[in-house]
Design goal:
The protein contains no helices and 9 strands. By secondary structure, it is mostly beta strands. Strands 2, 3, 5, 6 and 8 form a 5-stranded antiparallel β-sheet that branches. It has a 4-stranded antiparallel β-sheet with strand order 1-9-4-7, with no helix packed on it.
């Protein structure tokens, strides 16, 4: 699978910014590489958290409405309320991943690459 990339951008204190969601393939077990790059603008540094969910709004048998989905911070604390670029991985793929920017001015970029024998 080609890497998926999403962004958040906060200019002049617009509050919490949430990226689009990255959908991960359940048939492709892992590992899944996760990387966050930061492009700070003058002012406060970007503060971000990577979040994940196992809820699936696309499940044809039992979809969870998007407003009811539970989002959890990634298990690697280096990507929770962080102000520095970081890289980690999931041993097993969650259903969706997103980036939440809670402070600072600038851009945070989340790149996710899912590899495995079934989907690569």
């Amino acid at each position: 699978m080609r890497p998926a990339v999403v962004y958040t951008q906060n200019a002049a204190g617009l509050g919490v910014q949430i990226s689009e969601w990255i959908y991960l393939d359940a048939w492709c077990p892992g590992p899944v590489s996760v990387q966050v790059a930061i492009y700070n603008a003058p002012g406060a540094p970007v503060v971000y958290t990577v979040q994940q969910t196992l809820d699936d709004c696309t499940d044809p048998a039992s979809p969870v409405p998007p407003a009811s989905m539970s989002w959890w911070n990634i298990g690697d604390v280096n990507l929770v309320n962080s102000t520095v670029p970081a890289q980690t991985y999931y041993a097993a793929a969650p259903r969706f991943v997103r980036l939440v920017q809670t402070g600072g001015t600038g851009i945070a970029q989340l790149t996710v690459a899912q590899n495995g024998s079934i989907c690569s």
